[in-house]
Amino acid sequence: MERTLVIAAILLATTAACGVSPMGRRQLLLMSDGAVDQQGLVLYDQYKRDVPISQSKRDQQYVACVAEAVAAEVVEGDIPESWEVNTFKDDSPNAFAIPGGKIGVHTGLLDVSESQDQLAAVLGHEVSHVLARHSNERASASQATGLVLAGARQSGYVDPQLMNVFGMGAQYGLILPYSRTHESEADLMGLDLIARAGFDPRQAVVFWDNMDKAAAASGGQSPPEILSTHPGSATRKADLNARMPHAMELYEQARAQGKKPGCSR
Q1: Which pLDDT score, from 0 to 100, does residue 161 have?
Q2: Quick check: is 114 catalytic?
Q3: What share of the chain is helix, strand, coil (3-state, %, to 5)?
């Protein structure tokens, strides 16, 4: 009886918390947007305490210029109209956007992105994670997995060894591919976003070429795609190229409307 109630509660919670992403994909959303935003603000404040902000005014102004042009195209619901943007002194080629309107760019990314359009491609991708509520979705997936595991343990009918197998199955069968889905979705959404802002979407593919060269130069090796939270570079570029005709239409429309960002480092 207890086992049945636990399973019923899980099914009710997950059924009641379904949403749809901007790309039309069904989502599991167990947390409120406000709760996710608040967690994001806490994380961002902690990050600013842990990682030094770049003292280069030139870099800060350049990143802010690109970020503001991208964010100006965001018109979705409760997404912030203004974003706090910081450039952090870190050699890794990374960037992130956090629910609550926070953007961070590592100085190492500026060495790999060779133009405003390439930097915009990364920021468009990161902002799209926020637009698609991916943080909420990932947290909800983890929460749902935890509920299932807890319910199975309480039932007393599951062998501990099988529980370990199930835990591994959740990692490689749900969490990793789910994350790859998010990354692919953010790639395509971000491509459209930067095109609407007047950045050249073709440079998104060039950026990934640069990342491949940087990885090869450093001797870094990516894990097999099936065991990675990100799609392989070849997959990403193929997906971006397939989306490119649509993005180019948006780009030409934006340019005709006078959207011609002029951010320089």
Answers
A1: 54
A2: no
A3: 65, 10, 25
